[in-house]
Design a protein that fits this description.
The chain has 123 residues and is of the alpha/beta class. The protein has a single domain (3-122), classed as Rossmann fold (3-Layer(aba) Sandwich), CATH 3.40.50. It is 45% helix and 24% strand. Strand 3 (48-52), helix 3 and strand 4 form a beta-alpha-beta unit.
């Protein structure tokens, strides 16, 4: 059974994503920011990390960059409701450049997230 670390600073969203993955048969861990996510991942690596981008205490982009550097084979899905631009690139574009396998703009259907997870874990 694949394991997933869900990282989001919004409790309700994190809990909804966790419940969705658990119902689909995944083992799920949670973190509410990038700093906690990295600490958890280093203690108990997961097959997939689903991370929000806009969070306090180390955002998702920093988390993705560190994960990619420390664990090049981890699968990553980046999610965000933010639409701000970094230069001419959006947050999700930057997440892909840093190594996210898939990206999703909030709000999204849970089926889209499950499909993205399944696809990422197959590669």
């Amino acid at each position: 059974m694949p394991s997933i670390l869900v990282v989001d600073d919004e409790d309700q969203i994190r809990q909804l994503i966790r419940a969705t993955f658990e119902e689909a048969g995944y083992r799920v861990a949670e973190a509410n920011n990038g700093k906690d996510a990295l600490a958890q991942y280093r203690l108990a690596p997961t097959d997939l990390v689903v991370t929000d981008i806009l969070m306090p205490d180390e955002d998702g982009l920093e988390c993705i960059a560190t994960l990619r550097r420390e664990s090049p084979n981890v699968k990553i899905i980046a999610i965000t409701g933010g639409s701000d631009m970094i230069g001419v690139l959006g947050f999700l574009d930057v997440a892909k450049m840093l190594g996210a396998h898939r990206t999703l703009q909030k709000p999204f259907e849970m089926k889209a997230l499950l499909d993205a997870a399944h696809s990422a874990l197959q590669t």
